[in-house]
Here is the input.
Amino acid sequence: MKRKCDRCARPATHHSVEINQGQKIEKHLCDQHASEEGLAIKSINTPINELLTNFVKIHSSDEPERRTTGGACENCGLTFAQFRKDSLLGCPDCYKAFEEPLSNLLERAHEGGTHHIGKVPRRAGAGEQRQAMLMRMRKQLNAAVVGEDYELAARLRDDINRFEEETT
Here is the structure.
């Protein structure tokens, strides 16, 4: 069902949700009224909050009932059923209270990923190799010192100094 603009009969093309003092305020506006409010920026990508809301609503119905009805956050009293309905956690402690069902939802959203890995610039690949080489050389140096092989330690020290000068 398509929504109509809150101010006129045209179809709403801009949808926003604001949280003000714990109250959810939804706005559905046409292009004209959205531009009047400064919201007329067209975006090809769906906002992350909308994606998460839809994802939680779709996938939380898969969770066993025991997870959705049992327990509440000790700090704010929010239940998982309320979270499913509103797609909003009440406080930071909710993450611990609902750790298992939230983890399952996030794993599905990120195709099994459980940790943020981030991106590495292409040009950083050579830098990483240099750092790994330097770390290996320092470990060898420490092993030589512990083994009291001072001749090898002196050579490794000199190699490390040369290597560091070349890379800077």
